[in-house]
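Ligand: S-adenosylmethionine. Inputs:
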Amino acid sequence: MGRKVNLERPKKGPGRKARKQAEPVFQFSKEESEENKKLSRHQKQRLKKREITKQKLKEEQKKKKSVQKATKAVVNNTFDPAEIFNVEKSRQKYQQLGQKGKPQSVASNGHQNGGEKGRNLFDSDNEMDEDERPVVKGKVPVKKSQMKKFLQQAESDEESDSDEEEEDVDSDVEEEEDGEDAESVDGEEDDYEDEEELGEEEEDGEEDDESDEDEDEDDEEMEEDDDMLPIEAANKKLKKRMAREQKEADEEMAEAAVNRERFVFPTDEELAQTTNLQDVHIRIKDVIGVLSDFSANRDPERSRCEYIDLLRKDLCLYYSYNDYFMGLLMDIFSPNELLEFLEASELQRPVTIRTNSLKTRRRDLAQSLINRGINLDPIGKWSKEGLVVYSSQVPLGATPEYLAGHYMLQGGSSLLPVMALAPEENERILDMCAAPGGKSSHIAALMKNTGCLFVNDANKERLQAVLGNFHRLGIQNAIITCVDGIKYADIMKGFDRVLLDAPCTGSGVISKDPSVKATKTDIDVQRCYNLQRRLLLTAIDCLSSSSSTGGYLVYSTCSILPQENEWVIDFALKRRNVRLVPTGLDFGVEGMTRYGAHRFHPMMKLTRRFYPHTHNLDGFFVAKLQKFSDAIPKSVSGEPVEDEVQDEQEEEMKLPKKIDKRDWYYKDILEERKAQREDTNHVVKVFQKPTNVKKGTKKSKPPQTDASSAKAEDTPVSGDSKQQPSVNGGKQQRPVPAKKTEVREAEEAIRLKKKLQQAQGQNGKKFGPGQSKTNGTKKVAAGGVQKGGLKKKVGKVRKGK
Ligand SMILES: C[S@@+](CC[C@H](N)C(=O)[O-])C[C@H]1O[C@@H](n2cnc3c(N)ncnc32)[C@H](O)[C@@H]1O
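Predicted complex:
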């Protein structure tokens, strides 16, 4: 039965049987059979490669598991948070975790990433692991190896086609074997994983669940991927991995953002230690962030007031404002807008000029200036005369065009009040506070040098500038006066239009005068609005309600404080027969109808506010009023309201201890004080006869001149060596001056005294009933000072002294 194997006996030659049949082959073992089998070169190559692949697959599976666990440990913060910042320590821990289930060959690569570095994302050997890998950035030989593989495969396929039947059979056998091997490898891997998972299960059960899910997904994908080309599968996995990484990065970002936004209110110590302005700026932004959504961002133990206080202090520190002034600004703006305003107030506004339409046209002027190398543009559609200058190689106040009066250097916002006033030809117009004359000259130009423009200012020096400008600009319809605006209605009335560009705190032009930030106090603001109210009432009184062209008044300030704007207008609306009308300006922010506890007239919306941060113009306020009756409304008490204003003002008036003599705000106060001093001395002489001083007693050493000796005899008891007008028994004696300066001083004193008497005479209230307004001094003497207002005044002055 069957053939016998002849292993020992060598063949002696082919017999019939031998020729017909080959010797039987017995597969004692796979290795033996393969060794004995005669393989082609390509078959040998493929076999070798398969062996390597199996080995690699095994290693990769193990590595994959270890890396996955290590990654999860990092993601779930199983590290000590302090270690996160210790890169080296973290790396070591990461490696330790990673090496738990990793074969030595991978661990021996050293750095974890180093091991991953050379892996080919498109290599079919590694495909299964792609989803589990941590992010590896490095050079990966992708296409080369892939192409090589494809070429080898193609080559082998071609050869396979031409191989004998026998080889095909062998190949099939080999494939089957490969399948078995692969199964066994998977089986081993599963066992390994199971062991690993069991070990880890107690520590992090949840992680394992997730890991299982991931594996399931991967298995499913692998099944799906079988239908795809390797490159497609790799691409799909790469995309998936990128999406996952993106998601993780987004989560991390969100977490970081949450941590960053959560502002922790600083302790007193921390606040005291703040020395860096950069830190203050960051804190300002943080606090504003908290205030923007207070309920969500606040520290429950801190009130809104605490945050606002902190913000105010920081803003004062950072932008160099005083606390009071910053408080005023905080009442106007929301925190975010306030920051914008403060930033804009640190920057200079663009230089602007106004074309003098009496002498040239804007186009021609622009052309001439461009020819001089000045870079400019029209200021905007809202003005036909304005030009904004970006750069200039020559001083703008010294060009031939300037000297010829073709333009006026003027801030953009100062065009607005005149545009609102809309002067017409042949009108009678008053500019009550005009120096240095920018707006007046604009009015004159719009009047085309017709009609009559009264240009007034209380400051004589500043009026010099008006004079110079008017000559240069060719204005011929103006009359310049130097009168206290409050008294203007006593001099002249019946104007068609009045412009009151009132003196103010300058809170809108901080970029021009930064001293405003630190110097303005409540007294300054109060003083400003009191003056503004009085000037406004007078300005309205100067206006004719029966003017054929309207009887309009424009009130403007370069301040953004409601106290100087809406509040002043509201005050006038209650005391005069005027109404608010549209300004005719098609931009700007509506005026306020409420401010803190104050409620203003609803028509206040017709007024306009301009801000540096919204309009790139100086801060400005413009209101237009129309007078509909010349009658002055009576107050509840039946007295004319201006008297109430005066009383109110006397009540409210607080003066700073130190007054800067150069400050025009206080010019009239200083004059008044001086006059009061004169008056006081005079009163002292009248009512307190120098009983304690014997005639001829020398209290002070007189100058060694005859005249001065004479003067010494008349020197008042106060011991004031300054030349004073002396009065004897109520009769005023003319002093005998020794020097020219003394003569001047004496004359000045007399002039001031007269001025005071006039002022007192105009205000009958000060002297009580029956007293003469023309000779206050005598009447006071006769009527006695005990009841009169003068005594009160003298008392005040004494107190002041
Ligand atoms: C804002 S400036 C006017 C600027 C001017 N309108 C212009 O466009 O060039 C305010 C002016 O009011 C003047 N002034 C202050 N108190 C005054 C008063 N009681 N009567 C009249 N003018 C006064 C100041 O001398 C100052 O020149």
